[in-house]
Design goal:
- There is one protein chain.
- This protein is mainly β.
- The protein is built from no helices and 18 strands.
- The strands form three sheets. Strands 1-4-7-10-13-16 form a six-stranded parallel sheet, with no helix packed on it. Strands 2-5-8-11-14-17 form a six-stranded parallel sheet, with no helix packed on it.
């Protein structure tokens, strides 16, 4: 079956960082990403980003949609929707079009709601000739 929408991804198009993984460095992705481990660095994705319940991330995040169940310290930018699930903990500033905060979620920072948020990843490899 052909994809009618360039932005739709099948489950196999998700890059997964499992709970036993710790990454120190930046992550760039064209598709969807799920993080269940620990990341110290920036995550830049043209797709959706999901942070599992036991995940931990410190850095800047840019993605189309972000769903957080774990812990984040940093700045978040999403061009569509940011969901802070019940067990999430976010410390830092957020910019998004739609913000959903479930009961029990913890958020300490500033939020900015805007119709147009630029999430275009600044991939350092693109500037090298």
């Amino acid at each position: 079956m052909a994809k009618n929408n360039k932005e739709s991804y099948s489950p196999e198009d998700v890059s997964i960082l499992s709970s036993g993984i710790k990454i120190e460095g930046n992550i760039f992705s064209e598709g969807n990403v799920r993080i269940d481990g620990k990341v110290i660095g920036d995550v830049l994705s043209n797709g959706n980003l999901t942070l599992g319940e036991h995940s931990s991330l410190r850095g800047e995040i840019k993605a189309k949609n972000i769903t957080i169940s774990g812990k984040v310290e940093g700045t978040l930018f999403t061009s569509e929707k940011l969901v802070l699930e019940t067990k999430s903990s976010v410390t830092g500033d957020i910019s998004c079009k739609i913000l959903v905060v479930e009961p029990g979620a913890k958020f300490n920072g500033n939020s900015k709601m805007s119709e147009s948020i630029n999430i275009t990843p600044n991939n350092p490899n693109e500037s090298r000739g």
